[in-house]
């Protein structure tokens, strides 16, 4: 490959990289302009505290009752564990692991 070909190819790569970076920048600018208007004094949407005020009051009055009212996801946890166990069991390394496991002898007890 001659030096001219190398320079032409590097120039083409540089131009394509510059174009991709410019497009990426334009996409970022466009997505930001959708979220934030052009007004520099705009601080964003207001927070509506009315939705959380009753829960905060209940929490301040009786912490234990507020925590007790939260759902316990024991069934979901068990289901996730079972799902993970099944997924691992389907992997090639673990297929038939119980059938192939050697019999374990009890460890010798130190006297």
Rough outline:
flat
User: What sequence of helices (H) and strands (E) makes up the elements?
Assistant: HHHHH
**Distance between the amino and carboxyl termini:** 78 Å
Average pLDDT works out at 78
Global Rg = 31 Å
- Report the major sheet: none
Uncertain runs with pLDDT below 50, 5 residues or more? Answer: none
Q: Percent of residues in beta strands?
A: under 5%
Number of helices: 5
Helix percentage = 55-70%
Number of DSSP E strands:
0
* Helical/strand content category: mainly alpha
Structure description:
The structure is a single chain. The protein is mainly alpha-helical and 111 residues long. It is 62% helix and 0% strand.
């Amino acid at each position: 490959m001659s030096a001219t070909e190398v320079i032409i190819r590097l120039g083409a790569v540089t131009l394509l990289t510059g174009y991709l970076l410019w497009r990426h920048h334009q996409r970022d600018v466009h997505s930001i302009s959708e979220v934030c208007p052009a007004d520099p004094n705009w601080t964003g949407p207001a927070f509506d505290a009315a939705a959380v005020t009753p829960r905060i009051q209940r929490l301040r009055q009786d912490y234990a009752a507020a925590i007790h009212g939260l759902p316990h996801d024991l069934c979901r946890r068990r289901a996730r564990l079972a799902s993970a166990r099944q997924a691992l069991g389907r992997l090639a390394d673990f297929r038939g692991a119980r059938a192939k496991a050697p019999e374990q002898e009890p460890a010798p007890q130190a006297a």
